[in-house]
């Protein structure tokens, strides 16, 4: 579904992504791991159009999407979440979801005068869909609560819910577990698995929690110093000498530590 070919992203003399090449298969939940500074988030930002690559190519289903802005990729079904949730804090959780679909009738001044019936019908449909999403994510009890008042983990669920309000094909999740307690992280994991199996979502997940990666992801891609080191199951990744060196810098004698400290 996504093919990244020899992508570079430089910030002056710093090569944040340095010739990364990888592919994401449709219908997979792919993990992207690596030590801090490996270039994972920068690569996400390049694929998702937040940053333009210095060089290289990104394709989606065979179409060149290199450098396309996020709003164009959004309409192609490519979405991403961020390490820190970006909610409309003064709006309710339901309203946050209802804001997501683009080209709503009420966005045009003319329609607010002459298309009120159509606007009302559209809002009823959006409200029903938002309530369905909240129920799917087991946070329907938060529907009328302001997004600013919910926990960090619930905000991450709300971000995942936004992807369900449109026809998402592939979703990039950047450290979905950061600052989330274990119970809510399990709920997020359950939702990702269900969306993958029941609605055929493709996911790419950056995460430092190896238990979460092991539960959800196959394959796993490991990056270091802006490059892709290797790809395989998590067990294969943990046994790879290059990966151990990237994380620990001390070789095979500390192999048993990988997973606990990764």
UniProtKB/TrEMBL annotation:
PROSITE patterns given in the database record: ABC_TRANSPORTER_1, ABC_TRANSPORTER_2
- Supply one GO molecular-function term: ATP hydrolysis activity
Q: Where's the ABC transporter domain?
A: 2-250
A Pfam family the protein falls into: ABC_tran
Xref: SUPFAM superfamilies = P-loop containing nucleoside triphosphate hydrolases
Keywords for the protein's UniProt record, in alphabetical order: ATP-binding, Nucleotide-binding, Transport
Can you name a GO cellular component term?
plasma membrane
Q: Does the keyword Mitochondrion apply?
A: no
Among CDD domains, the record links this protein to: ABC_Mj1267_LivG_branched
Domain of life (superkingdom): Bacteria
Mind telling me which PANTHER family this protein's record contains?
A: CONSERVED COMPONENT OF ABC TRANSPORTER FOR NATURAL AMINO ACIDS, CONSERVED COMPONENT OF ABC TRANSPORTER FOR NATURAL AMINO ACIDS-RELATED
Q: What is this protein called?
A: Amino acid/amide ABC transporter ATP-binding protein 1, HAAT family
Organism equals Salinihabitans flavidus
């Amino acid at each position: 579904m996504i093919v990244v070919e020899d992508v570079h992203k430089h910030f002056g003399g710093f090569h944040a992504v340095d010739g990364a090449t990888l592919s994401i298969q449709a219908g997979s939940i792919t993990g992207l791991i690596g030590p801090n500074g490996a270039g994972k988030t920068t690569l996400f930002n390049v694929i998702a159009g937040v940053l333009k690559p210095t060089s290289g190519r990104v394709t989606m289903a065979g179409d060149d999407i290199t450098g396309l802005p996020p709003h164009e990729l959004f309409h192609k079904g490519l979405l991403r979440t961020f390490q820190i949730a970006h909610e409309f804090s003064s709006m309710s959780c339901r309203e946050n979801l209802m804001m997501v679909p683009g080209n709503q009738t009420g966005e045009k001044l003319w329609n607010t005068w002459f298309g009120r019936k159509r606007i009302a019908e559209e809002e009823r449909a959006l409200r029903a869909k938002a309530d369905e999403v909240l129920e799917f994510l087991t946070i329907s009890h938060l529907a009328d609560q302001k997004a600013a008042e919910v926990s960090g983990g619930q905000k991450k669920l709300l971000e995942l819910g936004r992807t369900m309000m449109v026809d998402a094909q592939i979703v990039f999740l950047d450290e979905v577990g950061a600052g989330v307690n274990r119970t809510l992280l399990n709920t997020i994991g359950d939702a990702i698995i269900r969306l993958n199996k029941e609605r055929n979502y493709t996911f790419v997940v950056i995460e430092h929690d190896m238990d979460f990666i092991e539960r959800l992801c196959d394959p796993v891609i490991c990056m270091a110093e802006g490059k892709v080191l290797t790809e395989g199951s998590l067990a294969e990744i943990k046994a790879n000498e290059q990966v151990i060196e990237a994380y620990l810098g001390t070789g095979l004698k500390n192999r048993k530590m990988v997973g606990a400290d990764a």
